[in-house]
Amino acid sequence: MGKTTIVTNVAAGLAQRGLRVLLIDCDAQGNLQNQFNVKTENSLVDLLLGGDVEIASVRPGLELINSGKKRLAEAELSLSGKTARESVMRERLKTLDGYDYVFCDLSPTVTLINTMALAFCDYLIVPVSMSFYAITGAHQILETAEEISQLSKIDLVGLILNFYNSRTNLAKMVTQAVRDKWGSKVFKTVIRKNVAIEEAPSQRLTIYEHAPRSHGAEDFNNLTEEFLKKW
Fold this sequence. Notes:
The protein is of the alpha/beta class. The protein has one domain (3-229): P-loop containing nucleotide triphosphate hydrolases (Rossmann fold). It has helices spanning 3-16, 31-36, 44-48, 72-79, 88-92, 112-120, 132-148, 169-182, 195-199, 207-210, 215-229, and strands spanning 21-25, 56-59, 62-65, 101-105, 123-128, 155-161. Strands 2-3-1-4 form a four-stranded mixed β-sheet. Strand 2 (56-59) and strand 3 form a beta hairpin.
């Protein structure tokens, strides 16, 4: 659903505005750490298992905790029998201070790590690509978040329409269906399908660095402004 691209570029947009932002990669694929080409000795896995974590500076005002990639399975196995395991991440990260925003990039499947991340977060943003399967996925994420909110309240900030192509009937149908279902919870800004957005990760760059005059940079700039207005 383009979740890592959205997290990367919204966070970068906030950092460019002078805010301090922390990214936490919660996906075994490690797309966020791949995006910034950062390797650290200690990762989210070490933190969850009671050890130290290394926070890497990836851009001015922008920092990152690596996931530990495949070792996340190790953490899940170790924590699966633990009492109140859903609150482990929240407890381990409660000493975090000095950040204006903390973003968790979740995996696309239901995992214990995702559950812990949702219990840690105060707010949820859901990207929706131009597919009716993506709407089903959004429903599932929101249902999971609603279940977790009984343990730790999490509010939906909004849904972001991604990979939008105004020339296709499918995009128009999905957009209408999402706006009809969630109304004002859907961001007005849409992220248009743009080759520059697709190229940027392969260059280890944000859209602002790779193609600052592209439609992609324009869309993410507008999305960041709209995001800030919600607070």
